[in-house]
From TrEMBL:
Catalytic activity, EC: 1.6.5.-
Family designation: Belongs to the NADH dehydrogenase family.
Cofactor: FAD
InterPro entries from the UniProt entry: FAD/NAD-bd_sf, FAD/NAD-binding_dom, NADH-Q_oxidoreductase
Domain (FAD/NAD(P)-binding) ranges: 6-328
Organism of this sequence: Peptococcus simiae
GO molecular function annotations of the record: oxidoreductase activity
Signal peptide range in chain numbering: none
Domain of life: Bacteria
Record-given protein name: NAD(P)/FAD-dependent oxidoreductase
UniProt keyword annotations, A-Z: FAD, Flavoprotein, Oxidoreductase
Gene3D superfamilies, per the entry: 3.50.50.100
Length: 410
């Protein structure tokens, strides 16, 4: 079957799955073979991982199988670890088999970036996949249970203390879930909420720069009212088994807690650096306007591993599921055009806004210049999730994966 052009897509996240799903509709079975490679047999809606981390959603609520989405005869899923990419010989080495390609789409997503902070990898939880998110949920509940069922003289107050490093989008959405969940845990274990400490330490000077000052202040006020204490412009330099050590304008500090969570940064897959060398910064490669690699017009780099600079701008767009999905659509269309000997189109990012969830019933949406808060913003977030599911997996799967049901089930 090697006579058909081979299209290999690495990563079944928003970008890769969207490319595969759209391409299998655009290309006739005789015209190409599509192989979608991922270490997992399922897609994960990363944008909901913070819900899993506080037990407000289950792993099965935020994931679904790839096989029903990517189907024979001209598309298949290969569950394997991508080990390396040999650009010269146009081969991808995986743990299962070597894949020769005519067109390659690299969509390997993000990994947690701890910037070399001592002890952060070992001692803090990260939100990278739902196994880690579930571990956070279990750990927090275990600490509350331990506190409640220990003799009052031997209780460890740090069991009720949670430290979050980083105040970016992930950290803020996680804190929003905590504001929802902590009162329920206190009620369940008969613990006074006044004993719980929820602190966020962040190097950021400006809180949530993707929002206006007023919107960002609204979010910070909501979380502060829910018991979160913020320490901004504070540089964490070490994580110990039960503390963050950090420095701010007032000097050196150490905050203690039995739950440490790091949300302070992500970078693109390490395979990017191994493949493209020094051109890669924090796992991201600056791509051409059609999302290809400079000098390699058959290799597309999309999603969190791509640094795409819109025309007229001097900085790469941020990494979000929104842009990853749009890149997937554009890449599928461009590969289909190339196979049909038609010219490619440049990618244009259409930013329709940002929705930040603050637990299950609250949030802030900034869309097309409008600000929506409260319950309506959360409905909007669920709608966006359903729409994204539709784009990357089709109507049937979007319905089957219950996002639509969640939308109307309030
Ligand atoms: C808690 C949280 C909340 C977020 N909220 C939002 C939000 O509200 N809105 C928004 O737009 N964005 C949000 N984001 C960001 C968004 O999730 C990412 O930008 C998006 O997931 C990037 O999509 P992607 O397809 O590039 O990569 P990913 O979704 O990370 O997919 C990469 C895929 O590659 C696979 N893979 C990686 N390495 C290998 C390998 N070596 N071998 C085989 N397979 C491999 C992985 O298993 C994965 O399936 C959030 C992120 C987090 C963590």
């Amino acid at each position: 079957m090697r006579n058909r052009p081979q299209i290999v897509i690495l990563g079944a996240g928003y970008a890769g799955l969207c490319t595969a799903h759209r391409l299998q509709k655009k290309v006739k079975p005789g015209n190409a073979m599509i192989t979608l490679v991922d270490r997992r047999s399922y897609h994960v809606n990363n944008i909901s991982l913070h819900e899993v981390a506080l037990g407000n959603a289950l792993a099965q609520d935020v994931s679904y199988d790839l096989v029903p989405v990517v189907r024979e005869p001209h598309a298949r899923v290969l569950q394997a670890e991508v080990i390396s990419i040999d650009i010269e010989n146009q081969v991808v080495h995986t743990s299962a088999e070597d894949l020769a390609y005519d067109y390659l789409v690299i969509a390997l997503g993000f990994v947690t970036e701890t910037f070399g902070i001592k002890g952060m990898d070992e001692h803090a939880f990260h939100i990278e996949n739902f196994i880690q998110s579930e571990a956070i949920s279990r750990h927090i509940e275990d600490r509350f249970r331990e506190y409640a069922f220990t003799d009052s003289l031997q209780r460890d107050p740090l069991d009720l203390s949670i430290l979050v490093g980083g105040s970016g989008f992930t950290g803020v959405e996680l804190l929003g879930e905590m504001v929802d969940r902590i009162p329920l845990l206190c009620k369940k274990y008969g613990i006074s909420q006044s004993l719980v400490s929820l602190r966020c330490v962040s190097a950021d000077k400006k809180f949530l720069p993707m929002f206006t000052d007023k919107q960002a202040q609204y979010i910070m006020d909501y979380l502060s009212d829910g018991g979160v204490e913020f320490y901004m412009d504070a540089m964490i330099n070490e994580a110990t088994p039960n503390s963050f050590k950090f420095k701010d304008k007032n000097g050196e500090h150490e905050f203690k807690a039995n739950t440490l969570i790091w949300t302070g940064g992500v970078s693109g897959s390490p395979i990017m650096k191994e493949t493209f060398g020094d051109a890669v910064r924090r796992g991201r490669l600056v791509v051409n306007q059609d999302l290809t690699v400079p000098g390699h017009e058959n290799i597309f780099v999309i999603g969190d591993v791509a640094a795409f600079i819109s025309k007229g701008s001097d900085r790469p767009e941020g990494t979000t599921a929104q842009i990853a999905t749009q890149m997937g659509t554009a890449t599928a269309d461009n590969i289909a055009r190339t196979l049909a000997h038609r010219p490619r189109h440049d990618f244009v990012f259409k930013n329709s806004g940002t929705v930040c969830s603050l637990g299950a019933r609250h949030g802030l949406a900034s869309v097309y210049g409008f600000t929506i808060t409260g319950f309506l913003s959360m409905r909007l977030k669920k709608f966006v999730e359903t729409l994204t599911d539709y784009k990357i997996s089709g109507l049937y799967n979007a319905i089957k994966n219950t996002r639509l049901f969640k939308l109307i089930n309030f």
